Amino acid sequence: MEDQVALQRDLARLEQWAESWGMVFNASKCHIMHVSRSSSSHQYLYQFHGVVLSSVTSEKYLGVYLNHDLKWSHHIDQVTAKAARKLGFVRRNFRGSPVDCNKKAKMTLTNPPDAKGCKIAPIRRVSFRFTEFHFPKFQITNA
Fold first, then answer.
1. Residue 12, Cα to own-chain centre: how many angstroms?
2. At a CB cut-off of 8 Å and minimum separation 6, what does 138 contact?
3. What is the pLDDT of residues 13-44, one digit of tens each?
């Protein structure tokens, strides 16, 4: 309980600091995420600028989705879905274009991590779908 009180005190100090420097925080954009592998039944309600902060289970921070249970599945799902949407855009709008034009469009729009040797199956599937789109006769071999 003393950790929660200390954090609430730090939030109050942050309010005072912002006020003294002429800054304004938008409390409606601030959230609390309880990070733990165990399920905690009691959760403290924090206030910032008189607004009770909402609790979230996942939050995007610097391009990475952080999850309350410290698992990467939500981040991988979001990254894979975004790459698949962009690949769909390339497929719809560049069908019938020369292969080198399609490659440049795909690399410009999706810029995926190198999927060669990637152990993350969803990312490998999106990468394979791109290869399949550009090289229909491509076969995966165990070399």
1. 29
2. 131, 132
3. 999 999 999 999 898 889 988 887 666 666 78
